[in-house]
Amino acid sequence: MENEITKDEIDNFFLAHPIYDKYLGRAALICTLYFVNADTQEIQHNICECVREYVSLIGDEAKCCVSTSSSRFLLAEEGKLELMDEETIRRKQENGSSIAEFYVASHSSGKEYDSVPAKFSLRTVLLLKEAEFAFDGTPLDKEASILSAVFAPSFFLLDKQPLTFTDLVLKWCNALRPLSGVAGWGVSQLSDPWLMTPSREGLARYLLQYPGLDLPCLLPCSHFIQHIASINWLTILCDELAERVGGVERLRSLGKEYPLARYAGGHIIQAGPTPQLGDREHGDVLPLYGKVHDLLRPLYPPLDELTYIASGFYDYDPQTREVNIESPKKAEQNLREFLSLWMNRYSADVKTPPLFSLNGS
Questions:
Q1: Is the pTM higher than 0.85?
Q2: What pLDDT score was predicted for residue 129?
């Protein structure tokens, strides 16, 4: 980003649906951490501390929440919100709930919540016990809980804060001891209490056009016990994952442009001095990020398990402006081709597939 960019420009970079008049996301600074042991009092206390710190940091921007106790959308009353707390989590655990969720954001109304991606938001999903019907059929100790925080870019990049973005990420990593995670440029997604996927398909081309733009997975998932979801300006790796690519010495071999920070149980790789957002149309594919991506390739899930990025990749008929209906085999091929491109998103050779295709041809 250029130094002279204004706060309004940097905070209002919206990502529209490729055809329909609807915003699906906005570019933001994000921190997404995947961690375990959310059924323990220590992690429950620490996650509540992270939530309280986030709300304290963003101040008046904390305007609404979806409460842990009732799952209802609530607007702040006299500046106060019903935050996630340890007692509520314990009650849910004692009552047999398998998850505890919380969401806080900068929406000032229900209409805004439904129609505009948030400037600020934090979502956490804690796995408290093995569900009878687990998200993907795996036991509790093989499922990752999630913390994903969104900040308007100017909050850290233009404004002075009591601690830096990197300091905050390190502090939260020490509190939650994540298996993996990322922090940097990403997508603040349109709020969706059921976390359905159609908006992700609409955002897919942006992930190829703008290398460094991350689309966090917000569903508990077994993938991120043994794998990473992505890489970014800050890439978080537990010790076990780091060992699989050669350990801390291999991470250090990336060079002086990649400072390492140690947290309790792992390392944070920093790619360059500031978070970057590339633009393929201008030939900027972030080679600093590409070097981390190439080193950590063995830690990604197999290609057919990358559907947390998108579960479909569509083109549109230029005459009808409707989705081209493909055979199941062709639809699967389109998705695999997109996921293969995404796995090479830091390569200058990647081309974003055209949006329109006459009759799917």
A1: yes
A2: 81
Q: DSSP states of 144-182 as a string? A: BEEEEEEE-HHHHHTS--SS-HHHHHHHHHHHH--SEEE
The whole-number pLDDT of residue 196 equals 47
Query: What secondary structure letter does DSSP report for 32?
Result: E
**Token pair 């250029």 in the structure block, residue:** 2
Looking at the chain, the whole-number percentage of residues with pLDDT higher than 70 is 93
What pLDDT, in 10s, does the model give residues 101-150?
Answer: 999 999 999 999 989 999 999 999 999 987 554 445 566 667 899 999 99
Q: Do 280 and 207 touch, CB atoms closer than 8 A? A: no
Outline where the chain has alpha helix (H).
7-11, 41-58, 86-94, 110-115, 153-157, 165-176, 198-209, 223-226, 239-244, 247-252, 287-296, 328-342
- Nearest of 346, 30, 34 to residue 187 by alpha carbon: 30
Cα distances (angstroms) measured from residue 94 to each of 51, 130, 261, 334: 22, 13, 37, 45
Residues 263/173, Cβ–Cβ less than 8 Å: yes
Looking up tokens 């019903």 gives 82
3-state SS record for 210-241: CCCCECCCCCCECHHHHCCCCCCCEEEEEHHH
| d(C-alpha 166, C-alpha 33), whole Å | 14
Mean pLDDT of 259-286: 97
The dihedral through the CA atoms of 194, 198, 204, 205 has a sign that is negative
